[in-house]
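Let's practice the habit of predicting before peeking. Look at the sequence and jot down your guess about where helices and strands might fall. Then scroll down.
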Amino acid sequence: MALAAMTAACVPFGASSETRTTSSSRAAAPWTASWGAAVQPAHADPSEPEGNWSESGFGEETLRQVVRLSVGGPKLRVRLSNAYGTRPLKIAGATVARSDGGAKARPGTLLPLTFGGSPATTVPVGKDITTDEVPLPTTHREELVVSLRFAAPTGRATVHRFTTATSYRAPGDHLWSTASESFDRSATPPGTT
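Done guessing? Here is the structure:
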């Protein structure tokens, strides 16, 4: 289950830093959506005896999600959604890295995600927010890990119910952890091992 619904976008390789519009004014190179999840409201699922993460939301912890890009590029940014949240979503920090399998981040690749230059942000109820661009060259079909740090309870979470990737969570601040041991809980999609 993808719990903070995200979309990753890359500037394709070969795109110029500027393109001309029909009015001859200059505009930034277009971004290409490379990974996404349809957003849905939190839900109760009787097949999950302990409930699911969307119902309870998050507290003093770090959420790590694995995303597989469809296309790569020289830089990326991530869009986060609070479309169905019941309160403003306070993000205390965020990182992105190349995946090293499971909850592991490849050493030497962890980079901060910022929001208008700030490491923290608040996503209003019913809104989305996009990170600043990150100079992380990626390849087609590469897996990344995106980590979000919550320092306060989030309430019910915007979710994507039918994911095929496992998500991980750890108590406290583990944004900069490359190991998987701290991520002591996982949500694995049904039918996967």
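How did you do? Residues 1-6, 15-26, 189-193 have pLDDT under 50 and may be disordered.
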